[in-house]
Amino acid sequence: MQFVSIRIITGDIARLVDFYERATGVRATWATEDFAELRTAGATLAIGSTRTVPLFAPGSARPAENQSVITEFLVEDVDLVHRNLTGFVTDFVAGPTTMPWGNRSLLFRDPDGNLVNFFTPVTPEAVQKFAAGHGVSS
Length: 138
Fold this sequence. Notes:
The protein is α/β, with parallel strands linked by helices and about 140 residues long. The protein has 2 domains: about 1-60, Signal recognition particle alu RNA binding heterodimer, srp9/1; about 65-138, 2,3-Dihydroxybiphenyl 1,2-Dioxygenase, domain 1 (Roll). It has helices at about 15-25, 55, 80-85, 125-130; strands at about 5-10, 30, 35-40, 45-50, 70-75, 90-100, 105-110, 115-120. The chain has a 4-stranded mixed β-sheet with strand order 1-4-3-2, with helices on one face. Strands 5-8-7-6 form a 4-stranded mixed β-sheet. It is globular. The relative contact order is 0.17.
């Protein structure tokens, strides 16, 4: 099995795609006016409008109600990213903080209130973990 993507359902797909393009520097590929993907080397962030939900199961997903998932991106320099996002991101939850497991993390909310974590490994153990291509744990 291979983890491929995570999908966010939104009531305003243009706004959310624009946000993630600006925040990540990754250009989205639009399949339809209701579905876009931001592809990275490790996984894809898919963004779908509420009009796509009935294709799966009516009422199965609701936008802007996530209270448990954090979408995470490995970045080269989280402190630089924080400076670049200041003035653009309106809801920083926590500024760059070094976590006990060795990553320096920046936590913020996207326009729908979903948590996003940009992080950089900073301890030798964390750097080695990500150099070896192992799983993400911010």
